[in-house]
Each structure stands twice: as C-alpha cells, then as structure tokens.
C-alpha cells in the first residue's frame, strides 16, 4: 500500500505538540513481550523470576513470542518445570513466528 499526499509540514507541527512526559497511562496499559527461544527459556529460575517480577510490578500483560506451536510451548513449559524453572503462563502467546496469537 502506498501512502500519498502526506503533508510532512502538518505532521511535524503535530509531532512538536506531543509531550510523552505528559501522557498519563493506567498501570495496566503496558505489555511486555519476551522471546522464548534462545533467550528467556535459556535463563535460570532466578533470571526468569526476576524478569517476570518486573512485569508484575508494573501490572503489565505478559506475552511470549516463539517459533513454536501452542503444543510445543506447553512441552517447553513442562520441560522447564521438570528442571525446577517455573515459566508462568502468559496473558498472550505469539506462536509459530507470529502466525498464531493466543
């Protein structure tokens, strides 16, 4: 899709009027997305706990992104649990490299 007739001067004027310091957001309006494969899932129990605690402290929605399918995610979750590493269930799961969102 091609965007045409974009008035850059108008856009720049609007942009200058926006102050991100002045935006009041509800505490539950943020989302943290964590990649699993090769990153979060490779962490220790302490590392995973710390990362997820940051999300909880900000009352954020937790989302995992993975190349795995839904069933493979549950297998990974159980594998980590058998190693003593609890990977909490997310609020959302982006699976199959973005093909499915649960």
Describe the structure.
There is one protein chain. The longest helix is centred in the middle third of the chain and has 13 residues, at 45-57. The two termini are 28 Å apart. The protein has a domain at 31-101: HAD superfamily/HAD-like (Rossmann fold). The protein has 102 residues and is of the alpha/beta class. It has helices spanning 8-17, 45-57, 70-82; strands spanning 31-35, 61-65, 92-95, 100-101.
List keywords for this structure.
single chain; 102 residues; alpha/beta; Rossmann fold; four-stranded mixed β-sheet; 3 helices; 4 strands
Describe the structure concisely.
It is built from three helices and four strands. The chain is of the alpha/beta class.
Which second-level CATH architecture of one domain applies?
Answer: 3-Layer(aba) Sandwich
What structural category arises from helix and sheet content?
A: alpha/beta
**Which fold name is given in CATH as the topology of one domain?**
Rossmann fold
Q: How are strands sequenced across the largest beta sheet?
A: 1-2-3-4
Distance from N terminus to C terminus (CA atoms, Å) equals 28 Å
Low-confidence segments, given as residue ranges, are: 1-11
- Could you tell me the strand content as a percent range? 15-25%
Order of SSEs: HEHEHEE
**Major sheet size, sense and barrel closure:** 4 strands, mixed
Question: CATH class of one domain, anyone?
Answer: Alpha Beta
Integer average pLDDT: 81
What's the total helix number? Answer: 3
Shape: globular
- Total count of strands: 4
> What helical percentage do the residues reach?
25-40%
Radius of gyration: 19 Å
What is the name of the CATH superfamily of one domain?
HAD superfamily/HAD-like
